[in-house]
Design a protein that fits this description.
It is a single chain. The chain is of the alpha+beta class. It has two domains: 2-56, SH3 type barrels (Roll); 79-201, Lysozyme (Orthogonal Bundle). It is built from seven helices and six strands; from the N terminus they run E-E-E-E-E-E-H-H-H-H-H-H-H. A three-stranded antiparallel sheet has the order 2-1-6, with no helix packed on it. A three-stranded antiparallel sheet has the order 3-4-5, with no helix packed on it. 28% of the residues are buried. The model is unreliable at 204-209 (pLDDT under 50).
């Protein structure tokens, strides 16, 4: 059976008398020994322990296909960029919308007020639901806040003061008092937003706006 051990360029499978098999790149016979040249070194076996050597014509295992890198996560849009886009979309002065965002949450998507208002422009959950928006999604939050402010400006014939008061205290309060309600929080809010609007735009709105 040892006569089956022939030198070959391809690999060899060496079958031992015990039935075990060894793989070799090349098999060499010398008196009384069979030498197996493997990728890790040389193995010498007594000739009597080798039953047969057969050519290994199996194709070499193909290298695994390279794994495509996972797509990089898209960074969330900058709230300031979203504010500019919403202002253009709804025909609002960007400076006004930026001043509202600064006053409400300082552009923070994670801000939550003590009353439960959420996100950059501080939408109450009920208001967000009416506007069909997720207030925890910055893009939806800002879009809905801009829409709400635009609708208030239309309702109050362009009066920035009344629209801002309604944005802060609700339309019912503005209607009840015929203008900015006498709440210190709301009055301070309107003053802060209008002041920020003036600083950002350089064009101070009149008291009748």
């Amino acid at each position: 059976m040892l006569a089956l051990c022939l030198p070959a360029a391809a690999g060899e499978i060496v079958i031992l008398s015990t039935g075990a098999q060894l793989a070799a790149e090349r098999v060499e016979r010398v008196p009384g020994l069979v030498r197996l040249h493997t990728a890790t070194g040389l193995i010498e076996l007594p000739a009597a322990t080798v039953s047969a050597c057969i050519r290994d014509d199996r194709p070499a295992p193909s290298a695994p296909a390279p794994t495509a890198p996972a797509p990089a996560a898209t960074p969330p849009a900058n709230p300031r960029t979203l504010i500019n886009e919403a202002a253009e979309r709804y025909g609002l002065p960007p400076a006004l919308l930026h001043s509202v965002a600064r006053t409400e949450s300082d552009y923070s998507p994670g801000a939550v007020s003590h009353k439960g208002a959420i996100g950059v422009m501080q939408l109450m959950p009920a208001t967000a639901a009416q506007l069909n928006a997720d207030p925890r999604d910055p893009a939806q939050n800002i879009d809905a806040g801009a829409r709400h402010l635009r609708d208030l400006l239309l309702q109050y014939n362009g009066s920035t003061f009344k629209a801002l008061a309604a944005y802060n205290a609700g339309q019912g309060a503005v209607q009840r008092y015929g203008g900015i309600p006498p709440y210190s929080e709301t009055r301070n809010y309107v003053e802060r937003v209008v002041g920020g609007y003036y600083r950002l735009s350089g064009d101070e709105p009149g008291k009748n706006d």
